[in-house]
């Protein structure tokens, strides 16, 4: 997991790689990947449940590593407590590759006034964090995280996604999308791909486990996007207990190579060190359950080869 040094701009610009907090690595170096999770997260919607404890984050990563996990993709975007300065040390200490995010969440996750302060320069902010580093001195982000709304896209979503598309075209970075309760997947693809020219293989649609609509799942897969099923331990979501069947349907339809899995730990109570499922749940409980549904080889591909392709890109120098 050595940090890249001494590379010329031309070398960096032509090599397909995953951008981790320790530098760019080839996709096949990721190993078993939690494709959507949070080590640090702070939302105005979740007061008192902040993920802010560095020691707890270290413990989660070590537990994940102990089960064979080798990469965690943190989808925490700008302004929500990413604690980017701790990510390099955590990655080195635990042996887990970490991919950080730039981007912007739904407006109501932020304190009043926080979003308005950056909207005018949003695309430039994303590009800077992807190419120069988070906050100017932190590690570089490896993807852009944005968010849709419930069954639609409001003005905020359209503005942030337009900025994400602009930053993607300038850098090559993949775009990861929070789908509110798993909805509006096709609206997102219409906006990013049809209106803004982002190739669908550079789009990751998150939270599809929260909307058990197999027709939409297959439409999104047919378009060419990556489909992320994340947060599997949340029993209040209708898709949780249907997840094996949902994945089996997509595998049978020929879309096994477009599926991703993640844990999406968003509160302190959900950490394994606090008695919740945490990051280990993905490998300790969900993996064997899915192996019964689609086979161990397919699950291994979903956890390794698929995130390697979803996250690797030919990075362009800005």
UniProtKB/TrEMBL annotation:
Family matches, as InterPro entries: Metal_Hydrolase, Phosphotriesterase
Positions with a binding annotation for Zn(2+) 2: 145, 178, 207
Positions bearing N6-carboxylysine: 145
Keywords: Hydrolase, Metal-binding
Lineage top rank: taxon: Bacteria
Residues binding Zn(2+) 1, per UniProt: 36, 38, 145, 264
GO terms for MF: hydrolase activity; zinc ion binding
Details of cofactor binding: Binds 2 divalent metal cations per subunit.
Named cofactor requirement(s): a divalent metal cation
Keyword Hydrolase: yes
Similarity field: Belongs to the metallo-dependent hydrolases superfamily. Phosphotriesterase family.
Name under which the protein is recorded: Phosphotriesterase-family protein
Organism expressing this protein natively: Streptomyces bingchenggensis (strain BCW-1)
Lineage per the UniProt record: Bacteria, Bacillati, Actinomycetota, Actinomycetes, Kitasatosporales
């Amino acid at each position: 997991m050595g940090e890249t040094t001494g590379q010329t701009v031309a070398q960096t610009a032509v090599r397909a790689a995953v951008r981790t907090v320790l530098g760019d690595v080839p996709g096949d170096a990721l190993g078993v990947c939690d494709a959507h999770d949070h080590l640090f997260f702070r939302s105005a919607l979740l007061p008192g449940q902040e993920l802010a404890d560095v020691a707890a984050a270290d413990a989660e990563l070590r537990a994940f590593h102990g089960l064979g996990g080798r990469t965690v993709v943190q989808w925490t975007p700008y302004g929500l407590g990413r604690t980017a300065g701790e990510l390099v040390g955590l990655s080195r200490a635990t042996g887990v590759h970490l991919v950080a995010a730039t981007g912007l969440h739904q407006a109501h996750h932020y304190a009043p006034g926080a979003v308005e302060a950056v909207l005018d320069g949003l695309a430039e902010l994303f590009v800077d964090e992807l190419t120069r580093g988070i906050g100017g001195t932190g590690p570089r982000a490896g993807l852009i995280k944005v968010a849709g709304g419930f069954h639609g896209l409001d003005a905020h979503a359209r503005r942030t996604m337009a900025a994400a598309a602009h930053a993607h075209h300038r850098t090559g970075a993949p775009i990861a999308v929070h789908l509110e309760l798993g909805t509006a997947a096709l609206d997102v693809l219409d906006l990013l791909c049809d209106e803004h020219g982002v190739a669908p293989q550079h789009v990751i649609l998150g939270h599809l486990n929260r909307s058990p609509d197999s027709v939409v799942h297959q439409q999104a897969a047919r378009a060419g996007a990556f489909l992320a099923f994340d947060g599997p331990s949340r029993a209040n979501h209708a898709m949780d207990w249907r997840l094996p069947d949902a994945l089996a349907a997509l595998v049978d339809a020929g879309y096994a190579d477009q599926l991703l899995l993640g844990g999406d730990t968003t509160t302190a109570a959900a950490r394994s060190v606090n008695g919740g499922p945490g990051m280990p749940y993905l490998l300790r409980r969900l993996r064997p359950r899915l192996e019964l549904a689609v086979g161990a080889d397919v699950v291994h591909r979903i956890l390794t080869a698929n995130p390697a392709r979803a996250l690797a890109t030919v990075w362009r120098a800005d």
